[in-house]
Design goal:
Strand 2, helix 2 and strand 3 form a beta-alpha-beta unit. Helices cover about 45% and strands about 10% of the residues. The chain is of the alpha/beta class. The protein has 2 domains: about 220 residues, P-loop containing nucleotide triphosphate hydrolases (Rossmann fold); about 60 residues, Histone, subunit A (Orthogonal Bundle). It has a 6-stranded parallel beta sheet with strand order 3-2-4-1-5-6, sandwiched between helices. The protein is built from 13 helices and 6 strands.
Amino acid sequence: MKYPKLINIIGPTAVGKTKFAIHLAQKLSCDILSFDSRQIYREFNIGVARPSDSELSKVHHYGIASHSILNPLNAHTFAQFAREVIATINTPYLILVGGNGLYLKALLEGFHDLPEIPKTVRLEVEHETQGVSLNDLQKIAYSIDATYDTYLDRDNPLKIKRLIEVFRVSGKPMSFFYKHKKTIQNSFDSIFLQLFLERALLYDSINERVDKMIAANLEVEVQALRPFWGEAVLNTVGYREFVDFYQGKYATRALAIDKIKQHTRNYAKRQITYNKKYFSQSIPIDASRDFDAQLNFIKL
């Protein structure tokens, strides 16, 4: 079976990936598949900067508001979903865009068959780790597997909690499963385009995006999700901080908003580091310059 060439657009949050992806998709007359691990849920909108209705009307998107947080995805299940989408595409290109590099890696390189985590275990681990510092989470991870930071981002609490869940269910460290060969169903012809901005411009973009989210009533969206506040999926920048504010962790609303901006900057740094490590052959695209002028020098 012939698959489309995958044009993978990566870069930190708020760098302008959606705008660039739509621009390129219109030039190539192709669709877009999102590998954003939060925009995929229909319950999330403002806080995850989901593409607007106007943007979605310009190009057909897959993976935007297509699933529910009632049945959360992981890298494995996302890769399965994405492969099914790719198999239906009959145009020469398909653009992939998003912020979750692990989801993209799972799709392109295969994934390890980790055990399924029951909801009861997820909630149990989430409750036990509530308020636990990153440093203490790292100590727990080291006690389970002293080599965990060779295959997981040691500064990502969500990844550490996942490691704990796997150990709780199987009694084995995650490295046990990582030693086995990945499941790979297909191989794809791919190219990587990495958007970037100078740090000051990126941080300005992040602050502006957060301000727009607040103005668009992000708090109302967070309140509407109250039944899910205990779910791991709500441990998402923009939502987590307001939940913490309502539960008394932050003294003022202004402090919660400042924390959203700070945590978004931290997330952007982690994305940049991850992309440099795993997608080092990507072609840089300056998001502050004219896109077409740069695309003229790229052989797609």
